[in-house]
Amino acid sequence: MTVDTLQAIEKMRAIVKACQEDPLEWISWLPVQASFLADPSPIKLLRAGNQVGKTMAGLAEVHFQALGRHPLRQVATRPPGARWEAWVVCASWPQSLAIQEKLWQVARRHLIEDCRFDPVNGFHANKPAAIYKNGAIVRFKTSNQDSLDLAGATINLVLFDEPPRPTVFAEVLQRVKRLQGQVCLTLTPIGAPVDWLRAMVEEGTISEHHTRLTPEALVPIGEHEPLKLPDGRPMDAAWIAEAERVCLPSERDVRIHGGWETRTITRVFDAFDTGLHVRPITGLPEGEWELVLGLDHGTKEYKQSAILAAVQRPVKEADPYRVIVLDEDVGAHARSQKADALALLEMLDRNGFSWKDLDEVWGDRIHIGGTGDKKANRDLQANLARLLHVDERSLKPGILTVKRGVGRNKGSVMAGCRWVYQLMVEPGAFIISPRCAHLIDALEKWQGADDVHKDKLDALRYALQSHIFRRQATLSRASAARTLRFY
């Protein structure tokens, strides 16, 4: 090996090391990222879908200002030892942890030795902060903290990653005004009301940088080809078309292209095709399947809707879930709780199962009808226990109540719809029995309204709760021992 070759290798190693230690000094920015970073406006917004590096651009802005030098524009110099503080405000702690890790990856060379990142606690569990060697401090906050401890705070820079609450945003503006600081927002307009932000953009109060997801938008400045995935596949027109195909039609413009609002559509589940997804079920394929039951007590005409399904978890990480919807029961108007319970047992029996074969049962909250009558999971469970001649406390599985805990907020409906839609576009991942006439009708007609179709779809979502929200349930003995057949 020649001396020139050895020198070239050493130079390459030095470049790789420099890239690893200070990646933001070497990054090639996408056009929308560069325009956002170069903008000195007191309030600026980067609005886009999920694939153009919004968060990284926002963190780069924080990092460059913390260093006191910016590659794309002038920033105010500050005397040695002068106080400088930024806040990065996230919607939740898990989101904050992910963003803290990103800052750690790009800024750790510039942080003090005592500043360490932990995957569980971030920079610190109680008051997470990244402290730079020059004295700059970047604190991480979540927007559900009471007023974000804003009382008396003076801040140089605030980054909101995803839409903030209007009251929090207004208070932050006052806290940066004294130091002539800057407020940055990087977001996809979904998950929170954004009409007020849109109005501020349209009136010119906020300087906006927006791009739709196109091949041109994914070509870094100075290069000629779009970004590539880890496996080498280019993020080109074909890749964008695939991203659109697997996204709920009502959310495509927002999630893929960063549009301001979801669209009114003819069908939520436009990927549902009776020719592809509906087929007779005479058994289940081999493997481990979980038997689940979802119950909606009905907001229309006081009807209970029940969906019985079998779920197979992925064997490998890249594999899809598989769901087979076996049967349904849609009660008549004002049917009694005892009749509801009996109908559930009959539905299980005609599919060759008993109550103890179920792995999980999920029902919605109490529904109070116009006459004051109530349908509740507890009352239904009591009726089931009487019909099965067991003590109510001994009924296994019991009926769990949905819409509680992490992830069961008002956005859980669309989260469940997205999960089911992903199954529909994966060949063979979603099968439904012709017995489920009401559910099939709902999948073909539902336009997102709170109507009779939604009750059946709610029951389907409830049945799949553990999987939609990745609850780590274990198979029951009945499920593990179940003999399953091909269909």
Label this structure with key terms:
single chain, 487 residues, alpha/beta, seven-stranded mixed sheet, six-stranded mixed sheet, disordered C terminus
Description:
α2 runs parallel beside α3, α10 (337-350) packs across α11 (377-388) and α13 (437-445) packs across α14 (452-463). The chain contains 16 helices and 15 strands. The model is unreliable at 370-374, 405-409 and 472-487 (pLDDT under 50). With 487 residues, the chain is of the alpha/beta class. The longest helix is centred in the first third of the chain and has 19 residues, at 3-21.
SSE topology sketch:
Layout: H1 3-21, H2 31-37, E1 43-47, H3 54-67, E2 85-90, H4 93-107, E3 129-131, E4 137-142, E5 157-161, H5 166-177, E6 182-187, H6 195-202, E7 207-210, H7 237-245, H8 252-255, H9 274-277, E8 290-296, E9 305-312, E10 322-330, H10 337-350, E11 360-363, E12 367-368, E13 374-375, H11 377-388, E14 399-401, H12 412-424, E15 430-432, H13 437-445, H14 452-463, H15 465-468, H16 477-481
Parallel strand pairs: 1-6, 1-7, 2-4, 2-5, 5-6, 8-11, 10-15, 11-14
Antiparallel strand pairs: 3-4, 8-9, 9-10, 12-13
Give a quick rundown of the structure.
The protein has 487 residues and is of the alpha/beta class.
Average pLDDT: 85
- Report the count of strand segments: 15
Amino- and carboxy-terminal Cα gap: 64 Å
Query: Strand portion, in percent?
Result: 5-15%
Coarse shape: elongated
Structural class by helix and strand composition: alpha/beta
Main beta sheet: 7 strands, mixed
Strand order of the largest sheet: 3-4-2-5-6-1-7
**Radius of gyration (Å):** 27 Å
What is the number of helical segments per DSSP (H or I, 4+ residues)? 16
